[in-house]
Structures are given as C-alpha cells and as structure tokens.
Amino acid sequence: MIIYEINKDVIKYRFGNPICTDAVVKEGIEIKNNDLAFKICEEENIKLRYKMNPDDTIYGLGENQRGINKRGGIYESFCSDDPLHTPDKKSLYGAHNFLIIDGSERFGVFVDYPGKVTFDIGFTNKDFLEIYVDDCNADIYIIKGNELRDIVKNFLNIIGEGYVPPKWAFGYQQCRWSYVNSTEVEEIANNFLKHDIPCDTIYLDIDYMEDFKDFTVSKERFPNFKNFVQKMKEKGFRLIPIIDAGVKIEKNYTVYEEGIKNNFFCVDKNGAPFVAAVWPGRVHFPDFLNPDVRRWFGRKYKVLIECGIEGFWNDMNEPAIFYTDRGLKNAIEHAKKSEDENLDIYTFFSLKDSFVNLSNSINDYKSFYHRIDGEFVNHYKVHNLYGYNMTRAAAEGFEEIAPNKRFLLFSRSSYIGMHRYSGIWTGDNHSWWEHILLNIKMMPSLNMCGFLYSGADTGGFNGDANAQLIIRWSQFSLFTPLFRNHSAMGTRNQEPFSFDKDSINIIKSAINLRYALIPYIYSEYMKAIINKDMYFLPLSFIYDDNMSKKVEDQLLVGDSLMISPIYEENAQGRYVYLPEDMLLWKVDDYKNRSYQVVRKGHMYLDVSFREVPIFIRKNKMLVLGKASKNVESLDNEELYVIAFVTDKAKYIYYDDDGKSYDYKKGNYSEIFIEIEKSDKDYHIRIDNRGNEAVKKLHFEIVDINGNLVKLTKAL
Ligand code: GLC
Questions:
Q1: Rounded to whole angstroms, what are the CA distances from 60 to 34, 63, 472?
Q2: What CATH number did the domain enclosing 68 receive?
Q3: Is the pTM of this model over 0.85?
Q4: Staple 668 to which of 206, 481, 663, 712, CB 3.0 to 4.6 Å?
C-alpha cells in the first residue's frame, strides 16, 4: 500500500492496482501518515472499520435511501435499475461512495472503486461503520476540513467543477412517458399557454424514436421533426429527447452497423458482441469505457442537434437489462420441468424467482466485458462506470459539435465525477408522500457528492397522484435546480392543468414563484459551482447547535434561505425549528408580500395548501424577479431585494450570459449589495461589477421588530 498526500487536506491510500475511474481530477504526491482511527482490517477484499461514538452523524452517499444522517442503514454502491424505492432497498441508480463522519472526529472518506462497495453504517453492529470493497484494488481518500462544509469543498476540489446547464434549464419542465406524437406534444404546449402556466421544456420519451432506436425519430409520429422542433421553439418550448444505452440489433441501422464494424460493443467471453434485451428487444451495449467509443457515440447526438435539439436525458444506463437469452432460457426450462408437477412451496418460489430475477441479474453483469487499454475487463468490476461514461460521451460530443454552447444533459445512472458532465434525476420514484420526504433528504446528500443539477420526478413517476400531492411536491421542487414533473405510462395524467381549477391555480402560483426566484436560484447555483460549494445544505452545515443536527426535513437553500416543505397528506402546517431569528414570508402569490419575524426555537407553522413558507436568514437577503412564460422572456430589469437586517447584510448577485461557458474565463457579472443598519436608517452600498441588465433594485428591508422599510435604488 502506498500512502501519499495530494494536498494538505486529502490523503490518498492506494490498494493494489486500481482501474482508473477519472473521478478525481486533481492529484499531488506528498506522503503523510494516517492519523485517523480508520482501521484497515483485511487486505484481500478491502474492509474498513470505524468505531462510531453514539452521537456521531454520518452524512453523504448521494443518491440513497433513508435520512440525511445515514446511520442505521446498509447501502450498496451498485447502480441498479430498480423502480421500487422502498426503504429496504440498498442501491438506487447512482454509486456515490463519499461520506462524512461528524463527531469526536470529523473527516470525509471517498472510496474510488467502480464495482460493488457496501457501506454498513451501524446496521449489523450499531457502533461500527464498515466499508467493504468487493476487490483488493481501490483508491481510498480521507478528506479533512475544520467545518463540514470545508470537507465537502475539499472533496469537490479534487473531483472538479460541476456541470452548468443553460439558464433556460432552470425553468419548469414537463415530461411524461410518453407524449407519443407531435399533435400530443403540441396540445401539451397549448395547454400551458392557455392556462398561462410558465414552462420551458417538453420531453420526448422513448416513443418518439423509430422502434426505440437511438438517434432516430419516427417519421410517422413526428413528420418533419426539424420544423416541429422549430415551431415549438417559436411557441416558447424546447423539446428534450431521451437517449437509451442499448443499441438495437438491426441490419442496416447505422448505429448498429458502425458499432459492429468497429468492435465498439461490449463482448461476451468468446469475444462476440454481448446481447441483452431492453426496450427495442435485443441490443448491444456500446463499450463507453473505451474513449474511441465515447467519441463515436458522442457525435451521434449531432443528428438531433441539427434538428434544433438543445438538451437530452440519458437513460437505462446502469445498464438496465430486462433479460438475456441465457436467463430466459433457464427460466423457461425451469418452467417446463415444473409442468404438471405438484410443486411444494420452495420449488414454486424458486420457479417464480427464475422469472422475477430475469432483469438486471448479477450473472448477466458478470458475463460481459469491456476492453480497457487492450485488456478484457469483466463488466461486474467496473459496473458503476457505465452510465457515467455514456454521459461523458454525450458531453464530450456536444463540446465537439457546438463548442462553448451549454446543453441540458442529465443521466439516470452515475458515479462520482460524472457531475462534471451533467446533472442527474433520481429515477423512477412513486406518487407517494414518503417520496417527497426522500427527495428532500436526498438533495443535500447529492450536493455533497457534486451533483447540483438534480431533482426528482415531481409528482412521482409510478402510481397515480392526486392534486394535493402535485401541489405539495411542486412547492418543494420549485427550489430544486432541475424542476421536472414526470410520470409513467398508464398512470393518471399529472400535468399542472390536469386537475380542478383551484388546484391548477395553486400549482400555477408555485411555478410562478419558481420563475420569480430564478435570479436567486441561478445566482446561488452558479456561486456554488464556481466556489466548489453546495446549493442545498442540511441545517447542521451552518448552525452548530445540537438541535440543528437532528433536523432532517428542513433545508438551507443557497446562502440566504431556509425552507420547511410540507410532505404529509392533508397537513396544513408543521413543526419548524429555527436555529436563529428569521424572516418568514408565506408565499401564496409572490407579488403579495408580507413578512413576519419569527423567533429562534421551535414553532408550529400553519401552512395552507396555497402557501410556500420561505425563511430569510438573519442578515441575509433574497433577490426576487418576476415570473414570465419561460426563462428567455424573463424581464429582470427591476429586482426586489428582500432583506432581514439586524446589523449588516451582504449579498453577491451573480449573473452571466446563461448559454456559454464564458463564465469559466471570468466573464460574468456581480452586484455586491451591502445593507447596514444604523439607529434609524439603513446604509445601502451597491457595487455593480458588470451587470448591464438590472436597472433598479427595490429594497424591502425588515428589522428585528418587523418594521418594513421600502426604497428603490437605480443602478
Ligand atoms: C425508465 C426511466 C423513465 C422513463 C422510462 C421510459 O423507467 O427511468 O423516466 O420514462 O424508462 O423511457
């Protein structure tokens, strides 16, 4: 084992000869001894053991079940296409092997291993955190920092700067599996316009394709696709097609033919292209771990980009396998043998399992190979890199096809490091109230792992949603960078206008609030990206009192806000904990504003179905604009600055062109705002560094006694 330090806050331990995952982009070489109580117990399969104190909190693990505090659970990093996110599930679609231990010691651990890793966080033995790596080759990083947030920043610093979508991707987005043809897509768009509900995108799920073949468009259902894309853009909507990992096996289908010709597909043990079945029936999986394959596949997006498409979602890239011929044959043989038998319960269960376990079987994952540096590597060993590299292929392709243009891109499967290329959505959840809470808890954990552009299927993918669920979920999702309503085939329609008039108006108010908040949301998002920071934080990352550690259902959003979403059916209020005095704005219509100072401590907060409670932290401010039909038509010449000032508040309002990567070269604007309270008055200092769009700032400043002062400053 080699131990070396990569910078003063990160120690890297190398076990054996690990496969390079490209998760970490920053490297250094100085040696330092391990001074932490993390014990390495086994050398064959790596096993790390840490004795937890009763009060230690464990954060992290990104896309996963359970709480912000991960204690008490067992988690497996093995990207899984499992659409039933019940609390007992150990894996979802992502593999995010980063956690933070916070107690008598405070440090982060990142296990850089692309196969299966198990995190037993006091599940088997309540006092022990145990990490098992299913191999003896891995890099393990220990990340230090004084504050929890510093540990995250040090981690983000080594895994690189996060993905930034175009600004329009911060608008509301509408999806369903599927809007099957251009008529239906247009009807959806017209309904948004008719109801005057803002919306930026409409998604094309698998049925836009011809026989589920990537990079094709059904001529029958979407005749003259290019014109249609343009027409929809003129109406104010961008179309976002899905791309799946599996390539249909079909003679004369170019993607298939090219893949075969160039040996671009994963192979079985005999070196023949591996066959699995997904939506189109039999497919091959491109070997995305090979840079040539990435280059090839990435360029394929061009055919849709040339039709005017500016965003994609990459799906089924764990990769999901419905079945293989091997599995199906076994199951059928099993069934044939059982025919006319009087099956006892065990034989029957085993027969049933042979069908139930047809999909995403470990045996199948173990039966195909990638070529890495000329060597065959079993897929099972590198499973978690697959979706990551599919998405990397897309992002690298975009860069080549349209340099310096931002595309919307998010993926279902992911590994640490993929945040540099795209966002993620959290996959096939349900229209269950529990899944709003899961969504709330997952967001800061995802941020710790670098995934800032993320969000859940608002309203739930599987199952039927009622109006109240859509209302409450939208009232939370309006704070998530990716705000997309999506639902599965066969479920009740859940677009905002699918409900009664009253509910439509409430959902519309929530979406309007989202658009009014875009100046703040975008500013906070971009600062988090540039500063390698988080956008959603648990309370305990800012407040160090004991109670804040326990709060799992309130979040800090950016620098100024705390939110306390409602996630229980029929609830018209909830308990809220305030770590300090704050300014409460219960938003019904964002244009009608009234504020209330709420005191530090616990309170029961009434929240009617119409209301979204927003808390502005002490000596902080919120910048608010106006809603519009989509992001491009936002008129933010005049912004409202809502501030809660007891002595001095500072805010940096960030903006940029919203479409290029020029911000990386420092081409962005900032307005520094400072409000200082004197005896009777406020001193306001504004330093505008390059923002030419904003002409006026309307201040609404509230002091500790609730006195409101309104004044306007021209820029
Ligand atoms: C998968 C995706 C889901 C999509 C469906 C059909 O289940 O997770 O979002 O709608 O496939 O493409």
A1: 22, 9, 26
A2: 2.60.40.1760
A3: yes
A4: 663
